[in-house]
Amino acid sequence: MNLATDLAQRSHCVKAQVGAVLAKDTRIISIGYNGPPAGTHNCDEEWPETGCPRDARGSCSLALHAEENAILYAVKNGAKLEGATMYTTLSPCLPCARLIFSAGITQVYYRKSYAEYKGLPSDEGVDFLNHFGVKAQKFDDADVPLKLPL
Asked: Which sequence ranges are marked TM in the entry (predicted)?
């Protein structure tokens, strides 16, 4: 989760910075953060005051979500996602949840709630994943054992 948090800082989004990490068999297999497709533009440079244009639901109309970027990068590089775990700084929206499920990812840990961020009544993406057998839960730093240097 620390890596996902660090990746989020690479985002050029002026509204929200989100990072995602895909891991499998104790290895990182892909990373991603939210932003427009590579080679297009950077929102903080082109629209520094307002961010990129919004769609009808108030979301970025030009950006890929961190989860999408992590999945696309993995696929582009031939990584097998079946059985992978995703760590993301914001719980997946419903469209990302459908991609996560379809990719065969079996666990998702998130730091903050997308529903709370967007003012929605529930985390539809988390509900979808849990309903269809993907374990999606809020990450609790207290559950991580502290590793002390030798």
From this structure: none
What is the CA 62 to chain-centroid distance, rounded?
Answer: 16
Concatenating the DSSP letter of every residue in 11-43 gives ---SS---EEEEEETTEEEEEEE-BSPTTS--H
Q: Residue 73's closest CA among 120, 37, 124, 48?
A: 37
Which residue in the list 45, 67, 68, 82 is annotated as catalytic?
A: 67
Q: Is 45 noted as a catalytic residue in this protein? A: no
Task: In whole angstroms, give the CA distance from residue 149 to residue 89.
Answer: 26
Residues paired with residue 22 on neighbouring β-strands, in sequence order: 30, 86
- Over residues 12-37, the pLDDT tens digits come to 887 888 999 999 998 999 999 998 88
- pTM for the complete prediction? 0.87
